[in-house]
Amino acid sequence: MRQRLAIRFLSGVALAAVLSVSALTGARAEDKPAAPEASAPVTSFDPDNVDTFAGAFLAARTADVDHDYNTAIALYKKALMIDPGNPEIRQRLMISLLLNGNLEEGVKYANELKSDPSVERVTTIVRGMDAIRRHEYRAAQEILKYSGPNDLDRMMTNLLAAWARAGSGRGKEAISMIDKMKGPDWFNIFKNYHAGAIALTMGDLKSARSHLNDAILDKTGGATAPDTFMRAVMALARLEAKAGDKQKALDAISVGDNLISNYAPLNALRDSIGKGDKPDQQVTNAGEGAAAVLFTIGAALNRDGAEDVVSLYLQIANSLDPKAADALVLLGGLAEKQDQTDRAIAFYKKVPDDSPMARISELQLGLALAQSGKVDDARRHLKALIDSDPNDVRSYLAYGSVLSDAKDFQAMADNYDKAVQIIGPVPKRSDWAVFFQRGIAYERLKKWPDAEPNFKKALELNPDQPQVLNYLGYSWVDMNMNLDQGLDMIRKAVDLKPDDGYIVDSLGWAYFRLNRFDDAVNELERAAQLKAGDPTINDHLGDAYWRVNRKLEAVYQWNRALASKPEEADIPKIKEKIEKGLPALDNDPKTVDKSKQPDPAPAPAPDTNAPAPVDKKS
Questions:
Q1: Which band of pLDDT confidence, cut at 50, 70 and 90, is reported for residue 587?
Q2: pLDDT digits over 174-221, tens only?
Q3: Were both Cys, which of 244, 378, 485, 579 would link to 370 (CB 3.0–4.6 Å)?
Q4: According to the CATH classification, is domain 24-30+427-596 in 1.25.40.10?
Q5: Which of 256-270, 278-292, 589-603: highest mean pLDDT?
Q6: What is the dihedral of CA 134, 136, 139, 145, to 10 degrees?
Q7: Is 0.90 surpassed by the pTM of this model?
Q8: Is pLDDT of 236 > 60?
Q9: Over pLDDT 70: what percentage of the chain?
Q10: How far apart are CA 561 and CA 576, in angstroms?
Q11: b/e per residue, 159-197, with b = 16+ CB within 10 A?
Q12: 597 pLDDT exceeds 70?
């Protein structure tokens, strides 16, 4: 299955470099649905109309699942009015309040539930952070004691307690406390960053420099917790710049480049220091330091399935350090992932204008506007960003993503033509996405001679990029050209991403196009398991079943495809197959199924902006 990549400027690994084309759309480029009209599933329950405990509780749980925290909070409160002593309702209400950013009210319930072992870890963190926020540092240290077996909980509470100790004026004890922490090797990057940050708040540059240097030399830790690594890099660079050593500051930044190239906040810091600026540190007091503990741990945990835990940590962190731009952008990304685009937009708008992450937040805001159905607003917003800085390639990627969603492929091609002009004759490896998206635009315009060189250029820049391998290989096989090379490309893409249902579907469909129907069935069945309910995969599997004479199963899969809301243009084709099946193949076993042949592409107009020709030999 051909698919494009959703453009994002942050990911769960780090607040991304120039972009993170990481989240798959789950659809072919030509089949991607328009942006939804609403930004999130909204619960239809009105708390005022609920008058039973069961009704309030069940409605609250539905709102909770939909991440509609305002409604969930109102309904849990209604349930608590009916049954004031119910501990489960208090627990769920507390969590909803915290996830909604209502820390002060959440603290009230955390104090009430502090002896409840089922939520003890949450209440400890919340109460400890609240004590730090109130500058009650000795109370925070008492609250944050931990003797349990969990390494992560132990590290988190000890780091928070260390910041509380630093807040009470005992910074050297705090650093010693961190240095003496025992634990697995992945502790080290967190220990060194936070010890260095505490030393900076004390003005102890020798200790700060030593700990931060150890942090940025920890390559294993950098891979485990890249956001923490980049914070350490930037803290060290700011330290050296403030001390008047511009070259050492730039050397520290170059270490960060080795882990994450073209990381936008680092680029902004480099430009600032290069101009002679001496930027202030991000963490300047105990409250911001405690917030940094939850941010660095939350960012390291950020992966599929952990969204609520990460959101909880980041919301609590935000209450102590509301201007921390990296936390705000990550919260926005999590809200988008949960289809809460209005909340995401609100987070992006909170990023300070003078933050190194301001540009990223503006770009992500434009994408969120499009996701919420405000496509015209998104186009205006992103076009204005391009006009404000025509040399920022990220702006073209964001704008192109919105144009692709709107299926305005000619405007998308024009946009990427301009981006290629900006890139110039010597593109960098990170520019592969521009050529890939440009290739998609021309392929959708049925200008294959213009599309193909762009896909090849993308692979030249990034030879092991699985989506490019998949798209080009699929396109060749689908057009019955370069079959062996196309099949090899798709196989390589599957090897690189074996759990990607869309890429596995490409391999199955390639086998189908080559009349290797048994192989097609094997791969397409696997794709259907990996990505259940996708109409295109079910449609393909139905075709493969028909060719191996499993006709009842074929009709079943076509009906599943029809029930899974395929594109309007595909509905009559699927209905016809349900009624008549597939046409018979020619007797020649090498003949490709003519029912699947694409229309021939029209002759392309000359493209004066195309990259230098790439060798087209198969």
A1: low
A2: 999 999 999 999 999 999 999 999 999 999 999 999 999 999 999 999
A3: 378
A4: yes
A5: 278-292
A6: 70
A7: no
A8: yes
A9: 87
A10: 13
A11: bbbbbbbbbbebbeebbebbeebeeeebbbbbbbbbbbb
A12: no
User: Domain extents for the chain?
Assistant: 24-30+427-596, 47-288
Q: Residue 83 and residue 63: Cα distance in Å, rounded?
A: 19
Q: In angstroms, rounded to a whole number, what is the distance separating the alpha carbons of residues 241 and 229?
A: 18
What is the C-alpha separation between 531 and 151, in angstroms, rounded? 35
Helix (H) / strand (E) element for 169: namely: none
- Please list, in sequence order, all residues whose beta carbon lies within 8 angstroms of the beta carbon of residue 70, skipping any fewer than 6 positions away: 100
Structure tokens at 165: 């100790």
Query: How many CA atoms lie less than 13 Å away from 510 in the CB half-sphere?
Result: 30
Contacts of 312 (CB under 8 A, 6+ apart): 95, 98, 99, 122
Q: In the structure, what pLDDT confidence band is assigned to residue 614 with cuts at 50, 70 and 90?
A: very low
Distance CA 609, CA 453 (A): 12
Which DSSP helix (H) or strand (E) runs through 6?
strand 5-6
Which are the contacts of 216, defined by CB distance < 8 A and separation ≥ 6? 222, 229, 232, 233, 236, 252, 255, 256
Any idea which fold 47-288 has? 1.25.40
Query: E strand or H helix at 600, and its extent?
Result: none
Spatial contact of 534 and 31, defined as CB atoms under 8 Å apart = no
Cβ neighbours of 223 (radius 10 Å): 13
165 within 8 A of 189, measured Cβ to Cβ: no
Residue 465 CA to residue 462 CA, distance in Å, equals: 6
Q: Strand, helix or coil at 425?
A: coil
Which residue do the tokens 């391999």 mark? 507
φ, ψ for residue 412, nearest 5 deg: -65, -45
469's tokens: 């391998």
> SS3 for 208?
helix
What backbone torsions phi and psi does residue 328 show, to the nearest 5 degrees?
A: -65, -45
Q: What is the CA radius of gyration of the chain?
A: 27
Q: Give the pLDDT confidence of 104-158 residue by residue, as tens digits.
A: 999 999 999 999 999 999 999 999 999 999 999 999 999 999 888 899 999 999 9
The rounded distance, in Å, linking the Cα atoms of 282 and 231 is: 9
Whether the predicted pLDDT of 543 surpasses 60: yes
Joined together, the tokens standing for residue 442 give: 């021309």
Q: Read off the tokens for 45.
A: 């329950």
Phi, psi angles (nearest 5°) of residue 368:
-65, -40
What pLDDT digit, counting tens, does each position of 301-324 carry?
988 788 899 999 999 999 999 999
341 vs 579: CA distance, rounded Å: 41
- Per DSSP, the residues of 272-291 read HHHTT--PPPS--SHHHHHH
> What stretches of 101-186 show up as alpha helix (H) in DSSP?
103-112, 120-133, 137-143, 151-167, 171-179
Sign of the CA dihedral with 442 first, then 460, 417, and 31 last: positive
Which ranges constitute the DSSP H helices of 499-591?
Answer: 501-513, 517-530, 535-547, 551-563, 571-580
